Amino acid sequence: MAYPTDLSVICTVLLIAAALSDALLRRIPNALCVALLATGLAAQWMVHGGAGVAAGAAGATIAGGLLAVPWSNRMIGGGDLKLAAAAGAWVGIAGLPVFLLAAALAGGVVSAVVLFTRAREVVPRAPATPLTAALAERSATARRGITAPYGVAIAAGALAALVGVP
Asked: What are phi and psi of 125, to 5 degrees?
């Protein structure tokens, strides 16, 4: 999808802001998702007319729909779902396959980095007393709650689709 530079900059800034927010705070503000969706549909209108708006709406609906199942199973957050839907408005239905594939690949990389950095943390020795056993179990439970900032992967996938990565 080829957009004029000024529109591309708007999209890029919003995607980077969402990715940074997710990476640093594990939260993607609704305002960013709404701004991305609104500017995506407006950009589609300015470049492709009514057919572009329809393609952008379809891209947003399909991207959001595909992530509804992982969201309902608590595999991703609501911000990730909303960001993917908003990015879908920019890439449209034609850019959706590249967007989703690139986001999935980037998600694998992000998850590997998160797991690798967590694996390097100091692992306690085998518990010697009931107290240390309880503390070790609590620590293991906390490690199972590791989250990855999937918004980073979604933003990367959207940018890949927008620059036309085959």
From this structure: -70, 170
The number of folded domains in the chain is 1
Dig out the tokens for 50 from the structure.
């009514």
Whether the Cβ atoms of residue 78 and residue 66 lie closer than 8 Å to each other: no
Residue with the bigger pLDDT between 128 and 147: it is 147
Of 164, 161, 165, 159, the closest CA to residue 11 belongs to 159
Q: For residue 142, give its domain range.
A: 5-163
- Angle (nearest 5°) at CA 76 between 75 and 82: 150
Give the separation between CA 27 and CA 154, rounded to whole angstroms.
13
Tens digit of pLDDT for each residue in 9-55? 999 999 999 999 999 999 999 999 999 999 999 999 999 999 999 99
Residue 104 confidence (pLDDT): 97
Question: What distance in Å separates the CA atoms of residue 11 and residue 16, rounded to the nearest whole number?
Answer: 9
Beta strand residue intervals within the chain, DSSP E:
none
